[in-house]
Automatic annotation (TrEMBL):
Name of this chain's protein: Tetraspanin
Function (record text): Regulates the proliferation and migration of oligodendrocytes, a process essential for normal myelination and repair.
Entries under Gene3D superfamilies matching the protein: Tetraspanin
Entry membrane topology: Multi-pass membrane protein
């Protein structure tokens, strides 16, 4: 029964190391996705420290690839030193992922305040005739999220751009996608998106942060299983003089 248990642990450990390689790619993808999406919404979100979880999760993804390599070599050769190193590194990465989860929740809670603080300034700086980066960001968000204004399309009436153009219309990015003849005129509000952008931007940014949190939690659970299996192999090898190596030619180092 004991030998069966140790063999199962070694088999699971080899399988987990393969998962670590896949996890490395997934975590790097999640981190890159956060960076790319943040670039689209960065004018609405001034606190660059919210990218810290994404930076950490990319670093963890890169480290997981190395961990998978160490774990595979240590498990196949059944090196006590290699397995011990594997467990220690996994523990450090696990602690790092716990930090990512905590930071993710902290910054997720701050999103609404950050957006509320900056969105009015962004809309007031809109320049539709010679659009700068902030103006392009507004048009992108309104088309992408299908919204108009901060709370609704009437918010445009208080902007500098609206007062300067004097044509009683909002940007064309407020027009519903299905309409081809929309001019943005406030005399035809049924042609415009009725929902404001602030709530949708907050929701989008919070969703992004949740991707980071769930990715970190999922792979932290896998790492716990990896540490458990490695510890079982180490303990059994230390106590059982009749312990058999997984492959011929393995080392007892």
């Amino acid at each position: 029964m004991g030998q069966c248990g140790i063999t199962s642990s070694k088999t699971v450990l080899v399988f987990l190391n393969l998962i670590f390689w896949a996890a490395a790619g997934i975590l790097c993808y999640v981190g890159a996705y956060v960076f790319i999406t943040y670039d689209d919404y960065d004018h609405f979100f001034e606190d660059v420290y919210t990218l810290i979880p994404a930076v950490i999760i990319i670093a963890v993804g890169t480290l997981l690839f190395i961990i998978g390599l160490i774990g595979c070599c240590a498990t196949i050769r059944e090196s006590r030193c290699g397995l011990a190193t594997f467990v220690i590194i996994l523990l450090l990465v696990f602690i790092t992922e716990v930090v990512v989860v905590v930071l993710g929740y902290i910054y997720r809670a701050k999103v609404e305040d950050e957006v509320d603080h900056s969105i009015q300034k962004v809309y007031n700086g809109y320049n539709g005739t010679n659009p700068d980066a902030a103006s392009r960001a507004i048009d992108y968000v309104q088309r992408q999220l299908r919204c108009c204004g901060i709370h609704n399309y009437s918010d445009w009436e208080s902007t500098v751009w609206f007062k300067q153009t004097k044509n009683n219309s909002v940007p064309l990015s407020c027009c519903k996608a299905a309409l081809s003849n929309c001019t943005g005129s406030l005399t035809r509000p049924m042609d415009l998106y009725s929902e404001g952008c602030e709530a949708l931007v907050v929701k989008k940014l919070q969703e992004i942060m949740m991707y980071v949190i769930w990715a970190a939690l999922a792979f932290a659970a896998i790492q716990l299983l990896g540490m458990l299996c490695a510890c079982i192999v180490l303990c059994r090898r230390s106590r059982d003089p009749a312990y058999e190596l997984l492959i011929t030619g393995g080392t007892y180092a």
